[in-house]
Amino acid sequence: MGDAMRGAKLSLEGISKSYSAGGVELDVLKDVYFSMVGGERIAVTGASGIGKSTLLHIVGALDRPDAGRLICDGVDVFAADDKHLAGFRNRTIGFVFQFHHLLPEFTALENVMLPRFIRGEKGEGVRKDAEAILDRVGLSRRLHHRAGELSGGEQQRVAIARAVVGRPAILLADEPTGNLDGKNSSQIHELLDELNCETGMTVVVVTHNMELAGYMDRQVTLEGGQVVERT
Ligand SMILES: Nc1ncnc2c1ncn2[C@@H]1O[C@H](COP(=O)(O)OP(=O)(O)OP(=O)(O)O)[C@@H](O)[C@H]1O
């Protein structure tokens, strides 16, 4: 996988986020303070609907908070204009969604090359990197399968390959095993662990699986709009 990635130092300082829907105001995140150092593996747990995805979307700059700052290696992320924000998302963050969001008509290889094309990179290097990372996640024999033809576990591995092909400092995974059986679920967690070890990238995983959460360096729970440290 070439040169090592490195986790970034990231802090949330007084982050708040509310939604209003149907005349009801919902305060999902309330003045959240939370820091992570580079290379940590963090599990985020909490009841359904408590705000885990909301938190992850803000950490990944997919959504803006109503108040508070996100500081990444000393830079105030949301103070930047949309162009720089897109740059942060594209270069610093890798995002794995619960339902992978692959393009079903495109091959595994094309899906993994896509983020690099979006960055404006092209050429043989992009293909080689995509092939290498697909090999790394055990899919060297599925490069030219359409994403829609792969099994659930294979699709999620392609999604992880796509998230890390740009060598992000931070990998955010929102219930990446939510739709997988126990064996596939363990394999995905092992893969995330190995990538963390090999590259030094920070890994933040939202999971309902307390046993898998127990293997992470830190476990935090979202409760009453706050991040509570468990370990
Ligand atoms: N765009 C939105 N507009 C209005 N309400 C929203 C919006 N997005 C989320 N919510 C509400 O905010 C709360 C937190 O949602 P979120 O998806 O962050 O929870 P979660 O902890 O990830 O849930 P789950 O474990 O079920 O995936 C929920 O009650 C949800 O209904």
Describe this structure in words.
With 231 residues, the chain is α/β, with parallel strands linked by helices. It has one domain (10-229): 3-Layer(aba) Sandwich (Rossmann fold), CATH 3.40.50.300. 33% of the residues lie in helices and 27% in strands. The protein is built from 7 helices and 10 strands. It has a 6-stranded mixed beta sheet, with helices on both faces. Helix 5 (152-164) packs parallel to helix 6 (182-199). The protein is globular. The structure holds adenosine-5'-triphosphate (ATP). Residues 19, 21, 26, 28, 46, 48-54 line the site of adenosine-5'-triphosphate (ATP).
Distance between the termini: 32 Å
**Strand adjacency order, main sheet:** 6-7-8-3-9-10
Going by CATH, the architecture would be 3-Layer(aba) Sandwich
How many beta-strand runs?
10
Main beta sheet, described?
A: 6 strands, mixed
Shape: globular
**What is the CATH third-level topology name?**
Rossmann fold
Query: What pattern of helices and strands is seen along the backbone?
Result: EEEHEEHEHHHEHEHEE
Number of helices: 7
User: C-alpha Rg, in Å?
Assistant: 17 Å
Distinct small molecules bound, one entry per kind? adenosine-5'-triphosphate
The averaged pLDDT comes out at 90
Short description:
With 231 residues, the chain is an alpha/beta fold. It contains seven helices and ten strands. Strand 1 and strand 2 form a beta hairpin.
Which terms summarize this structure?
231 residues, alpha/beta, Rossmann fold, six-stranded mixed beta sheet, four-stranded antiparallel beta sheet, 7 helices, 10 strands, 27% strand, binds adenosine-5'-triphosphate, P-loop_NTPase, transport, Lipoprotein-releasing system ATP-binding protein LolD, ABC_transporter-like_CS, ABC_transpr_LolD-like
